[in-house]
Design brief:
Subunit structure: Monomer.
Number of domains: 2
Pfam families: ADH_N, ADH_zinc_N
GO molecular function: oxidoreductase activity, acting on NAD(P)H
Number of strands: 15
Protein name: Enoyl reductase (ER) domain-containing protein
Number of helices: 9
Helix content: 25-40%
InterPro entries: ADH-like_C (IPR013149), ADH-like_N (IPR013154), ER (IPR020843), GroES-like_sf (IPR011032), NAD(P)-bd_dom_sf (IPR036291), Trans-enoyl_RdTase-like (IPR047122)
Strand content: 15-25%
């Protein structure tokens, strides 16, 4: 049996361990095998290692759901991909299947959750997209139920509020809102010049204080605002979104951190974007079919990253430690091949 190198979580709250005898997974029907070049790390990977998030009963486990590489084998019933194609994939999270995770030399991908990497971006740039663009897409077009960009049916909202513009999900949500032709894209937090280049119409300094931030949102969007996405806050920080929504229309706040409740919702709905929503979700599957074209056209741009070299325990554990200690300024990408 062919084997490979892989980084494993063998014990919760312990460093990842490099092994050299992990079996190379074989693609099943509807899957391809990827020779991994880049595995992207996200905050939930640190929480998985240190708290057992999603993997506590599935050890040993492999982390990283942002996987980029070249197709090395093709399973049955697969069309549209060939050996040698450069692709990016969102590794399966529905059953936390480690065979689809990135911190190994070869991984599997469901063809419905991957797409070709266009020539105008690098593998490192591509690895910034799968998890974050999927989360932002599901938040806007499934949870908030804004009509998807490629359909003329439904009504395009006049305005949306995005809290957490400095986050990667926030930046991608801005681009998706622009793709949907939402006219007023009001963002709290993040670099104003960068966000306006991506499509934001108003960028508000999150440090102004809640009252001043809410006033500026209302000055920009008026009293008809009914859609908000909070990409960064725990319950205590969600007040801005609820207070900024319309006083006479039912509104919705989608949040990417589904922890705890909010007592004062001002009559509006609080909706959670759960990780499992990202996989085999009909609107999200439609996005995967179009993502290559969106990136080629410049409608979707990669976010910031820092490259780390080598499938080495010390390299990856240090990157996860930086997430734990709040020191990551850019998404760490692990160069494997």
């Amino acid at each position: 049996m062919a084997t490979q190198r892989a980084l494993l979580v063998e014990e919760i709250c312990k460093p990842l361990v490099l092994v050299h005898d992990r079996s190379i997974p074989t693609p099943r029907s509807g899957q391809v095998q990827i020779k991994v070049t880049v595995a992207g790390l996200n905050p939930h990977d640190q929480r998985s290692r240190d708290t057992g998030l999603l993997i506590g009963d599935k050890l040993p486990a492999i982390l990283s759901k942002d996987v980029v590489g070249t197709v090395s084998r093709i399973g049955e019933d697969v069309t549209g991909f060939r050996v040698g194609d450069r692709i990016m994939s969102l590794g399966s999270g529905a059953v936390m299947d480690s065979s689809q995770s990135g911190l190994q030399e070869y991984a599997l991908a469901d063809v419905v959750n991957c797409t070709k990497v266009p020539d105008n971006i690098s593998d490192d740039e591509a690895a910034t997209l799968p998890t974050n663009v999927s989360a932002a897409f599901v938040a806007l077009f499934d949870v908030l139920q804004i009509p998807v960009p490629w359909e003329d049916s439904g009504t395009t909202p006049s305005a949306i509020l995005i809290v957490g513009g400095g986050s990667n999900c926030g930046k991608l949500a801005v681009q998706l809102a622009k793709l949907r032709n939402i006219q007023q894209i009001v963002v709290v937090g993040g670099d104003e010049m960068r966000l306006k280049k991506l499509g934001a119409t108003h960028v508000i300094d999150r440090h102004l204080g809640e009252g001043a931030v809410v006033k500026r949102i209302r000055d920009a969007a008026g009293d008809d605002l009914i859609y908000a996405l909070d990409a960064v806050n725990m319950p205590q920080g969600l007040g801005v979104a609820f207070k900024a929504l319309s006083t006479h229309k039912q509104g919705k706040v989608a949040r990417l951190l589904p922890v705890g409740d909010v007592e004062d919702r001002r009559g509006h709905d609080l909706l959670d974007v759960l990780g499992l929503f990202l996989y085999h979700n009909p609107p999200c599957l439609g996005m995967w079919e179009r993502l290559t074209g969106y990136v080629e056209d410049g409608a979707i741009s990669p976010t910031s990253f820092s490259t780390r070299q080598g499938l080495e325990a010390g390299v990856v554990n240090a990157a996860l430690d930086e997430y734990r200690n709040g020191k990551n300024k850019a998404k760490p990408q692990i160069r494997i091949g």
